[in-house]
User: What shape does this take?
Amino acid sequence: MLEIHNLHVNFGARTVLDNVHLHLKQPGMCALLGPNGAGKTTLLRSIMGLIPYRGVVRAPSQRAYVPQMSQFQWSYPMTCLDVVKTGAIRGMWRRSKAADQAQEALELVQMGHLHDRSIAALSGGQRQRLLLARALVDQPELLLLDEPFNGVDVPSQLLIQEVISGLEDTLVVISTHDIPSALATAQTMVLLNKQVVAQGSVQLLQDPALWEKGFGLSAQSSMVRAYVRQVEEAA
Ligand SMILES: Nc1ncnc2c1ncn2[C@@H]1O[C@H](COP(=O)(O)OP(=O)(O)OP(=O)(O)O)[C@@H](O)[C@H]1O
Assistant: This one.
């Protein structure tokens, strides 16, 4: 479903992604983990074709990207329904169809009653759910989420986890620093630090040496021990 070979991204003289290889063959949840500046957002934006890269990216044409909440322009004078309709590319040829699809997507994230609410008036959790609805309106085969749990309260986090876990035919790639949410949603873990440091099941994260390699954290540190304990409890 998603195949990446020899992917390189440079910003000026700086190499941000260096020979990334990744192959995700079937629908399911994949968590993309890595320290600040590891290139997670850059990888997602490369897959969407939003930035220039060298290498090969094979991804379904029906794909959607949810940017970090802070990257969206919340001061636009738009309603929730307007924003979600902008995701209904396939329904654009019939306006009424786009509106119906958008309303359904809003209901999926429990925001159907807020369809005519100005987006400037939404809370953080509602904003993240709105961006998810906009991405889901066209039923993508590949859904890329950039830090969807950031700045979101626990009920909204759980709702987002529930909605994406219900997408049976979709490959969902979630960039996150939120280890408990990653453990709760994803079956596949990818550790990125300019390159794919490791890829595997949740149990992968039980190896303290990987935290050292992937995050630059000492395997002996209390933080790594706490992470490993969380993974063991979830496994
Ligand atoms: N448009 C750009 N121009 C120049 N440098 C950039 C650009 N976008 C990203 N970078 C740099 O590329 C590196 C990787 O950034 P990226 O946002 O992909 O990392 P990340 O893993 O998503 O980080 P975080 O977890 O902090 O969000 C960073 O050092 C960042 O400063």
